[in-house]
Amino acid sequence: MATERRGHFGNWKPENVKPLLVEDVLPRFVFLVGFLAVWQVIAVYFSQNLLPTPMAVFQESISILVSGEFFYHLQNTVRRVFVAFVAAWFVSIALGVWMGLSERAEKFFDMGIIIGITIPGLATAIISVMLFGLQPLTAYLAVFVAVFPMITLNFWEGVKDIDLQLVEMGEVFDFGRVRTIRHVVLPQLIPYMLSAGRLALGLAWKLVVIVEFLGFGNGIGYMLTSEYNQFNMAGVLAWTALFTVIMLLIEYGGFKLLERRYLAWRPNIEIRGQA
Amino acid sequence: MSTTDDTVIAVRGLKKSYGVSANRFEVLDGLDLTIPQGDITCILGRSGCGKSTLLKCICGLEDVDGGEIDGDTDDLGYVFQEDRLLNWKTVEDNIRIALESNDIPSEEHDDRIQHYLELVGLAENATDYPLQLSGGMRQRVSIARALAVEPSILLMDEPFSALDEITARELREKFLEIITELDQSVLFVTHNATEAAFLASRIVVFEHEPPAAIERTIDNDLPYPRDIDSKEVQELKREIITHI
């Protein structure tokens, strides 16, 4: 059974290198080159020197990296993102599953979730800073409150989509509660866990930057403020670009690999030409 | 227990209804049915006549309102109309989880998986995932899963009706071959008269309006193996249809 994978990422066999380059790397490379080219053209011909060229931003990024500043601020931002993200993710699974399973819980919480989604992130950040001042808890809380309604919604939908016919099958074959949750229910929620993870991480970092902007003494958001105060556009873009690279690494190194590991059975990732 | 040695399941005075008070809807109202060991009993009837409800009551998916079901109802295999495989588990692990749940000692698992996959002709596909297989192959896995627990009775709820005709035909032949070889007791629900005439050793025709009542029981003594296109099977089918 020669199983040919459509995505070759993470499948480093010699015979896969060519398809890997053509199918996986090439389209993304073309996008990146196109993006930089458009940026270059706008910077040189249309921005009256307000927008620095990609090269200028690249040089600025290198000097930020060399100075060692980047990792200091990154570490602070990542800690804030991570703590709030993990807390929000676990609380949302519990709440989302509860809401999906119990009609009473659904009716009790759904308005709270909608309100939570509606409140602007900036408002949570400001309220949090005003209430708690500039301490670590403030950042965690602001991000948590902003992120967790969104991903609770995600899990809630996920639980509603669970295939009850499979649960029934488990009942007929005497799976019992533990085996049913572990092997029948949770695997159906994994796609939702991954998408909730992505969504939450993206939201969390945007929120952390806003909180840092409001007055923390370190972090990516603080550095963005500081570059902004000096009206250093190349600096603002360099900090943004560096953080974006980190997020891309998390996406391709983390979520894509998790997806490959846990969703290998899905036909869009597996196999072609199978009898 | 009042079941005798050669009875697998005995249903007596089974009652089941849905809804409350004015909207109460009797599906089963005092049904009696006995399944002898080694028999292939087909319940035949139109959609909505209560035949699937009977299966659900026997396997415990539905609570009954009255009457009794005697026999080893913990020890069943079930094949649904859909394959109901766990798509995130390989073919062999789909069978393994059923074996684990039925407390089959783990040293027997590999042999059983191998044996029953061979029976349904899928020994080669043990490590495939369900979505890599065709619909007919998936239903064969589902049959292997139900047989692998070596149930006292195999319950089947229109297992071939979602497949295309050619596949269904092949699968029925294969299935009959396996079942007669294993001397497996089967309770098979269908609305397909040809299928009943071909497979069953006994055909129980339900009246077409619920509550389910037995319109007629037809013994089918045609010797196995049978040919679905033979004159005898076709004649029996015509006879059955007059009772539905």
Number of helices of chain A: 10
Distance between the termini of chain B: 34 Å
* Largest β-sheet summary of chain B: 6 strands, mixed
| Overall form of chain B | globular
| Helix and strand element order of chain B | EEEHEEHHHEHEHEEH
Please describe the topology of this protein.
The complex is a heterodimer of chains A (275) and B (244).
Chain A: H1 14-46, H2 54-67, H3 69-101, H4 103-118, H5 121-132, H6 136-160, H7 164-172, H8 176-213, H9 220-229, H10 233-262
Helix pairs in contact in A: 2-10, 3-4, 3-6, 3-8, 3-9, 4-6, 5-6, 5-8, 6-8, 7-8, 8-9, 8-10, 9-10
Chain B: E1 7-18, E2 25-36, E3 40-44, H1 51-59, E4 66-71, E5 76-79, H2 91-101, H3 109-119, H4 135-148, E6 153-157, H5 165-182, E7 186-190, H6 193-199, E8 202-206, E9 214-219, H7 231-241
Note down, in words, how this protein is organized:
The complex is a heterodimer of chains A (275) and B (244). With 275 residues, chain A is mainly alpha-helical. Chain A contains 10 helices and no strands. Chain A has 2 domains: 9-51; 55-262, MetI-like (MetI-like fold, Orthogonal Bundle). Chain A has helices at 14-46, 54-67, 69-101, 103-118, 121-132, 136-160, 164-172, 176-213, 220-229, 233-262. In chain A, 30% of the residues are buried. Chain B is 33% helix and 25% strand. With 244 residues, chain B is of the alpha/beta class. Chain B has 2 domains: 1-75 and 152-244, P-loop containing nucleotide triphosphate hydrolases (Rossmann fold, 3-Layer(aba) Sandwich); 86-150, no CATH class. In chain B, a hairpin with a 7-residue loop joins strand 8 and strand 9. Chain B: This is NitT/TauT family transport system ATP-binding protein/phthalate transport system ATP-binding protein. Chain B: One of its GO terms (molecular function) is ATP binding. Chain B: Residues 9-233 form the ABC transporter domain.
